[in-house]
Automatic annotation (TrEMBL):
UniProt GO molecular function: hydrolase activity
Cited PROSITE patterns: LIPASE_GDXG_SER (PS01174)
Xref: InterPro entries: AB_hydrolase_3, AB_hydrolase_fold, GDXG_lipolytic_enzyme, Lipase_GDXG_put_SER_AS
Keywords recorded for this protein, A-Z: Hydrolase
Active site, UniProt feature: S58
Family according to the record: Belongs to the 'GDXG' lipolytic enzyme family.
Protein name: Neutral cholesterol ester hydrolase 1
Pfam families to which the protein is assigned, alphabetical: Abhydrolase_3
Ranges of residues in domain Alpha/beta hydrolase fold-3: 1-127, 187-248
TM helices/strands, residue ranges: none
Length: 275
């Protein structure tokens, strides 16, 4: 990337669970990014302040999206982000029954059960909640805190018919309100950028989102692209029908998959054209 884009690439070594929990990972990347954006630091590394992109894949895509949203609201920043590029990002924990979650619930690398456990780990929660969250008991109709946010990820309207197919929403009438009471982080836009206010989304920079068919997170990315477009943001949604979660790292023998090479090249080409 550094060679092909003639760019300085910075990878932030944010702290991980169980050393720290949400929102410390976000605080780490915000601090590091703000520091890097200081004029003297950009000058030290010979970085063009008008040519800055924030990017991440999977959990890193979640953090990149969260940082992007925070920076749009920070008037103190002299240098702004030109682009954001999100690779199969994790964007919400309110609905674990989107079409892609239903379709790929047992798909290798990232099955649904594992993804829900990761969320519980992130919030230092109780594994006893996992089974209830899998069937959306944490955002049932009787959980008032979730009511206003549920419309922001209404996939029956945000996803195209080719994605929705014959899948049906899973909305419980009564559920387990204790989950949200103990884990209010579930409804925090810093953990779930997909549920951010429209006024926050409209100030985001030009965006690239890569999604894969064989990935529980596919619909998170598609819904975010739709919400950003509705807010007036220029978005490129790069969808790979033969892609799977994490495929971009499989580019070296003996796991040099075609889709890994194609996703990587497509991502770098977009950056080359827009950065």
């Amino acid at each position: 990337m550094a060679e092909e884009l003639n760019a300085v690439i910075v990878s932030i070594e944010y702290r991980l669970v169980p050393k720290v929990y949400f929102p410390e990972q976000i605080n780490d990347v915000v601090r590091a990014t703000k520091y890097f954006l200081e004029p003297k630091v950009l000058e030290k590394y010979m970085v063009d302040p008008g040519r800055i992109c924030i990017s991440g894949d999977s959990a890193g895509g979640n953090l990149a999206a969260a940082v992007g949203q925070q920076f749009t609201q920070d008037a103190s920043l002299k240098n702004k982000l030109k682009l954001q590029a999100l690779i199969y990002p994790v964007l919400q924990a309110l609905d674990f029954n989107t079409p892609s979650y239903q379709q790929n619930m047992n798909t290798p690398i990232l099955p649904r059960y594992v993804m829900v456990k990761y969320w519980v780990d992130y919030f230092k929660g109780n594994y006893d909640f996992v089974e209830a969250m899998i069937v959306n008991n944490h955002t049932s109709l009787d959980v008032e805190e979730a009511a206003a946010l549920r419309a922001r990820l209404n996939w029956t309207s945000l996803l195209p018919a080719s994605i929705v197919k014959n899948y049906k929403p899973v909305v419980q009438t009564t559920g387990n309100a204790r989950i949200v009471r103990e884990l209010p982080q579930l409804l925090d836009a810093r953990s779930a950028p997909l549920i951010a206010d429209q006024v926050v989304l409209q100030d985001l920079p030009k965006t690239y989102i890569l999604t894969c068919e064989h990935d529980v997170l596919r619909d998170d990315g598609i819904m975010y692209a739709k919400r950003l477009e509705s807010a007036g943001v220029e978005v490129t949604l790069d969808y790979f029908e033969d892609g799977f979660h994490g495929c971009m790292i499989f580019t070296s023998w003996p796991t040099n998959f075609s889709v890994g090479i194609r996703t990587r090249n497509s991502y770098i080409n977009w950056l080359d054209q827009n950065l």
